[in-house]
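G., the chain you wanted modeled:
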Amino acid sequence: MSNTPPIRLSDLTNRIQQAINNVFAGQTYWIIADITNYSYYQQKGYHYFDLVEKQEGTAGIIAKVAAVAWGAGADKIKDFERITGQVFQNGINVLVKVSVNYHNQYGLQITVLDIDANFTIGLLEQQKQAVLARLLTENPEFIQKAGDQYITRNNRLALNCVIQQVAVVSSGNSAGYQDFKHTLDNNRFGYRFIIHPYFTAVQGEEKAELLQQRLIDIFNTGTPYDAVVIIRGGGAQTDFLIFDTYRLGKTVARFPIPIITGIGHQKNETVVDLMAHSPTKTPTKAAEFIIAHNKAFEDEVINLQKTILIKSQQLFSARSQSLSALNSMIVNQARTMLSRHKDQLQGYNQTVINTTQSILLSKHRELLTVSGQVLSKPTIMVAHKRNELENITANITSFNRMYFQNKRSELEHHKTVFRLMSPASILKRGFALVYQDGKVTANPDTIKPGSNIQVVLNSATLNATVTAKNETNGTAFDI
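Predicted structure as C-alpha cells:
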C-alpha cells in the first residue's frame, strides 16, 4: 500500500474541476463534429448527444465527447432547424460553439452554446455543386450549361400539347402523392387524367438506385406517357439528399420522357430539379403546372376559334360587299349589253328570214330536178339490166352446152389412154411382168444369177431361175 494517505472522491473531483476551470473557464470554441446518440427531453427542453470526429474516408471514430444543449443552446438549435429546414438529429455534420466544464456528479461535459446554420447549408451546397460539376464534365453529350441554366436532353424535350397520361414516382404513403392526385382529380376545368403510380423510397442517398430503377421501369413499359412526375412531401434539407446524387441526376438528364418535379423543397433547387424538364416546388404545384399547361392549350384553341370566327365574319362581310357590288355591276352591264344587241338580233332575224326563203326556193327547184331524174333513171337502168340478164342467160346456155361437149371429149380420150396403159393391154402387146419374192420389180439390180423369179405373160405364168445376167444400155426400144 502506498504511503500517500487516501483522499475522498469529492476531493479528487474538486481538483479535476479546479484544473479544468483553470484552463477552460470563460473559454469557448467553434468545433466541427458529427451528431450521434441524440436524445431530446421535451419537458425540460434538454438535448443530449455525443460529438464525434470520424477518420476521413472511413467510419472510424478518432474522438468522442458527450455534449448537452439547454437554455440558449436549445434556442439556437430551434433557430438552426428553422433556417436550414434540417431536423437536429443523428448523422448530421455541424459547426457548434461550445464551452468545456466539469461537474462533480456528471463529469466532463461539452455545452453547446451556438450552432452555425450556414456551415451545414454550405456543406450541402458544396456537395451539390461537386455533383453538378461532375455531371457537366462526364456527360457533355446531353448536359450543358448556358449562364446559370442547365440544358439537358430532358428539358429540351417538347411537352405534348395536352398532358393526360402521367407516371408518378413517389413513396406509397406520401401525403404529397395524395395532394397531387387530389389536385388533378378535382381541377375546376373538368380535365381527366390517367395516373400510373410507381411507388418507391424517396429519402436517403442510399435509395437513389431504387428511384433510378423505377424510372427505368417506366421506360421499359413502353407506355406513351406524356410526362413523368417525381414528387415528395416536405422535410428537412438532408431528406432531399437523394435528389442531389450523381446517379439520379444523370438518369433524369437523359430520360426520354419530360420529367416534372415537385419534391417539396421550398428553398433551394436540387440537382434533379436542375436536370428535369419542369421543376416545381411541391406536389400540388406540379399538379397545378400540368393543369395550367392543359388550360393554356385549351385557351389557345379557344382563342384560335375566336380568331377564326372573327376573321370569317370579317372575310364574309368583305366578300358580301364585293359580291353585292359585283352583282350590281353585272346587272347594269347585262342590261346595257341586252339593249345594244337587241337591234343586232332584230337585223340578224330579218336577214335569216330573207336568206332562208331564198335558200328554200333554190333548194325546191333542185329537188324538182332531182325528182325528175330519180323517176326516169330507174326505168332506163332496169331496161338496161334486163337486156344484160338476157344476154348473160343466152351466153350461159350456149357456153354450158359447149363446156359439157368438151368435157365428154376429154373423158373419152382419158378412157382410151387408160385402156392402152392397162397391164392387160401391155401384156397383149408382148410385154411381161417380173415378180421377185411375190412383188413386181423393174430393178434388175436386185436380180442375180440363181434368183427365182416369176414371169407373167398374157396367158401364162412362168416360174424360172436366172442362169445368167447380161447388162444392156437401155436403148433397144428407143424410137
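The longest helix spans residues 283-421.

Shout if anything looks off.
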